[in-house]
Amino acid sequence: MTEIGLINGRTKLLGLLATPIGHSLSPAMHNMSLKKLGLDYVYMAFEVGNKELADVVTGMRAMNIRGFNVSMPNKTKILPLLDELSPAAKFAGAVNTVVNEGGKLIGHNTDGIGYMQSLKEAGVDIAGKKITIIGAGGAATAIAIQAALDGAVEISIFNHKDEFYPRAEKNAHTINHEIEGINCKAAAYDLEDTEQLKAEIACSNILTNASGVGMKPLENESVIPDVTWLRPDIVVSDVVYIPSKTKMLQIAEDAGCKTINGLGMMLWQGAKAFEIWTGQPMPVEYVKTKLFND
What we know:
- The chain has helices at 26-37, 50-62, 87-92, 111-121, 138-149, 165-178, 194-202, 247-254, 263-278, 284-292, and strands spanning 12-18, 41-47, 67-70, 84-85, 97-101, 104-108, 130-134, 154-159, 185-190, 206-209, 235-238, 258-260.
- By secondary structure, it is α/β, with parallel strands linked by helices.
- The strands form two sheets. A six-stranded mixed β-sheet has the order 2-1-3-5-6-4, sandwiched between helices. Strands 9-8-7-10-11-12 form a six-stranded parallel β-sheet, with helices on both faces.
- Helix 5 (138-149) links the parallel strand 7 (130-134) and strand 8.
- The chain is globular and about 60 Å long.
- The mean pLDDT is 94.
């Protein structure tokens, strides 16, 4: 009998496709969970950008890899490379988790669920609230859609007028016109319009940075310049988790705001992906103890 934790001829491979990737806690989180449950898998990180993505996905399919996560900058670019999308992935137009079902690659999106669970753990309820979101990539899109589904009443989406700006506009359109049974309005704005950004933050309950600002190589930057943009009763959150306290979160702390970093979202989106691949719940409390407190 093979010792649990050792790679053998039957070990199944899981992975992460992203760049930059060296900072990721996903390999540690998944591998400690797999070992804890005695599951014969190993999770690896692969430095993959848009240029290499198609070839890598073809290789993953050919090698019958069980599944993999997808992070920046690949969450939207991977869509045409997959065979099927879950409803959440289709609505968000972005994928962060892929499972291989007998050669069929199915894309899921667990980012929005993970983000909302991190808010709940911090005692924050999105229902009836206004949220301002910075970014329009895969994570930002998933958060915006899930916020609307979970009862947010207003969503302001800011992004530079770059390749992702049409996604910001599409997200607002989807929320306003395509999701049935919700009472939420959304609008997209140019991130360069600082007066509009300041005005939207001023009347928001939650401010979320869902862009790469705050992580390497932008770890010394913030989407807000100083404490004058904030009031103590606004919740400020960040999808970035390394560093655990971004410059934006430090500014928010100085302003007396409740702050939430990206660790909770990382944990809960990963927990859902883990269950999709293995059919078993991730031992979340064990991961928190080992990964966050060591």
